Each structure stands twice: as structure tokens, then as C-alpha cells.
Amino acid sequence: MDLGVGNTYLEVDLKKIKANLMKIKDHIGKDCEAMPVLKANAAGMGLEEMGLFIAGECGVKTIAVAQVFEAVRLREAGVDCKILVMGGVPYDNVPAAVEYGIQMPVFNREFATLVDKEANKQGKKSKLHIKIETGMNRIGVKPGEDLDGLVDCLKGLDGIEITGIYTHLVESQAVDKSFSYRQFDLFKGALAQLKGRGISPKYIHVCNSAATVWFNEAYFTHVRPGRLVYGMDPNADVNNRWGLEFPVTWHAFVTNLKEIEAGETVGYNRYFKADRHMRVATLSFGYGDGYNRNLVLKGGHVIINGKRAPFLDMCMDQSFVDVTAIEDVKMNNRAVLLGRDGEEEISLLDFSKLLGEGYMNAMATIGERVRRIYKGMGAHRC
């Protein structure tokens, strides 16, 4: 049964995704590879579909995710390129990671021993990347004595192959680059330390999205662009210097139109009270779809017929907007929640300004029931 696009849908332009990735590849050069980061459901755009497209159509050889669960979903969807889990791995995830050939971070001896035992049990060799702690203080092993101790342990484990080394930059988007260079120096020291112990990793990666744009010295073998692939350059000093394009438009529909008079209320607990005659549109989405209700409380809008319609209130599954000043609003008109319609645009930066939080937060929380539709490059509805 064809259910159409559903109550609310996210349209993803795959041509823009590929064009953004090609701009990244052109900049980093042929001696460095892009390792796109598809964590958090590929920033809300759909993990499996994006993984298949990036590994297939875009020819990417390695994808990074945050969790083993995400990596297994990619494998079961048919993504056969290399996959690296960047975050700390709970111990009960290890058997699946070994079974599916998923590369993991290692930064302590207990975890290394556990992976070795599981790999030997399955008759496999597990590939690990040593995570170096240089300033985030999240996961990682510090250069020096701690790293030496880890290497001593690793050298006695035959079920493990060290294929990579990496770190994560804390504030590479900032105008002041001094802390990034400090982290870079610590990482180079760790790399030299490993090579002095006879370990020469095939994968060496430092740069996240922001650093990929400017930190040429830190390219090594791979960079890890996430939001760059999605058209967002997070650097504070220069705005979108590569001309990347945001590939997403989020839509919902007008499901009711009504007139209300001064004194009438809208929403649960009579949240909004009209002070004049108004025309109100009910829309087919709510906070149950992952739209942050604080955007309503802080003066957010949608776009209908190329004009901004202010929110009045939001429920879990439906929302209310003021369309008094918008001509020719009809039943089933599309509303744009994120993206462009005519001369008007609602961007992730608009969300960020209203909410006072990182602009990718809004993408990462878009719910599962929001239909993803892919256009371009032979795409299909998913």
C-alpha cells in the first residue's frame, strides 16, 4: 500500500550531498581520503540510505559512525566498505563488532584483552584504531607512559591488528587555532612514539569537519567530515568558503483552516489566546516528530506560500500557525519547516539562534516517523 509521503517528510537532495563530498575531496587532494561521519541517523537524513549512496555512488572506502548499532545497521543494509566506530564501545557490543568486521577504538588494556578473546573465539582478527587523548578528555590514551603500557599489552594479543590512530579536536571551529595546534603536537608525539615501538598504522586521522577546511598540515591519510558533507561549514572565521549546499527541506501539510476571534484560545491548557480576529492553520507535525517545541515558545516560524507563518502552539502530533497575513492558504498546502521556499528560508542557524544550542542538534533529533525522500542520482522514496 502506497501511503504517500506521510504527515511530514524530509526531502534530501543527493546531488548536493555528492557535490559537497566532491568539493571536500578536491580540497584534501589525492593523497588523503574522506571518511564521512554518518552518526545520529546520518544527521537525521537516514543512515542506511546515506550509507549505501556514499559508499556506492560516491565511492567512499571508509565510513565512520558513533556506535556499533549504527555500524551493524549499515552492514545489514548491504554497505560493504570499511566502517569505524569512533565512540567508546560497551563490552556486550564487542561480539557483533567482531562478527561484522567493524573497526573500533582502543585506549585501555582491559578492552583490548576482551576484543582479543572474542576475536580468537570467532576465529577472526579484529582491527582497532588507537584513540589518543589530546584535550577532549572523553575517551583516549595519553601519550607517554600510558600509551607505552597499552602498546605492551597489544603486542601480546594475536587476535588484534592495529590499523589506525586518531584524536579529536576540541575547538577547531574557533578563530583562535592555538589549542588545535597544541593537540596536533601531542598527537604527532604519540604517532612518533608508536612508530618507535614498531607500530605504523595505515589509517591516521585528526581533522573533523571544521579542521578539514583549514588544517592542511593535519590531513595525514584521512579526514572525518560530517556536517561538511551536509553542507554546513562550522568555522567561525569565514562563512562557507567552499560554497557547500544544504541538501534538506522538511515539509508538513495544512490539515485544517479556521477563523478565531479575540478571546478564543488555541492548544492544550489554552496556551495561546487571540487578541484579534485571526486565521489559524493546523499543520500535520509536532514535537513527536523531533521538532523542538522550544522553537515555538521562542518565536519560530514555518513558511507557507513563500511567507513566514508564526507558531501559535504545538502538540505532539499537530501544530498551529498564524496565516492571517498570508493570502490563498488552502487545505493540503505544504509548509516548509526547514529549508527554502521562494525568497524565504529557515536554516539550521535560525534554529541555533533561537535555541541557543548547536545547530546540528535539530537535525539529529528528527524522528523516525518523518518520511525520508531522496531525489536525484536515481534515488527513491524510503
Task: Describe what this molecule looks like in 3D.
The protein has twelve helices and 19 strands. With 382 residues, it is of the alpha/beta class. The chain has a six-stranded antiparallel beta barrel. A four-stranded parallel beta sheet has the order 5-6-7-8. It has a two-stranded parallel sheet with strand order 2-9. Helix content is 29%, strand content 24%. It has two domains: 14-223, Alpha-Beta Barrel (TIM Barrel); 248-346, Lyase, Ornithine Decarboxylase, Chain A, domain 1 (Beta Barrel), CATH 2.40.37.10. The protein starts with 7 loop residues before the first strand and ends in a 7-residue tail after the last strand. Strand 11 (265-266) and strand 12 form a beta hairpin. Helix 3 (47-56) crosses helix 4 (68-77). It has helices at residues 14-28, 39-43, 47-56, 68-77, 94-99, 109-122, 145-154, 178-196, 209-214, 294-297, 348-355, 361-364, and strands spanning 8-13, 33-34, 62-65, 82-85, 104-106, 126-131, 160-166, 203-205, 222-223, 248-260, 265-266, 272-273, 278-283, 301-304, 307-314, 319-322, 334-341, 344-346, 371-375.
Question: Could you give the topology of this structure?
Answer:
Blueprint: E1 8-13, H1 14-28, E2 33-34, H2 39-43, H3 47-56, E3 62-65, H4 68-77, E4 82-85, H5 94-99, E5 104-106, H6 109-122, E6 126-131, H7 145-154, E7 160-166, H8 178-196, E8 203-205, H9 209-214, E9 222-223, E10 248-260, E11 265-266, E12 272-273, E13 278-283, H10 294-297, E14 301-304, E15 307-314, E16 319-322, E17 334-341, E18 344-346, H11 348-355, H12 361-364, E19 371-375
Parallel strand pairs: 1-19, 2-9, 3-4, 5-6, 6-7, 7-8
Antiparallel strand pairs: 1-10, 10-13, 10-17, 11-12, 13-16, 14-15, 14-17, 15-16, 17-18
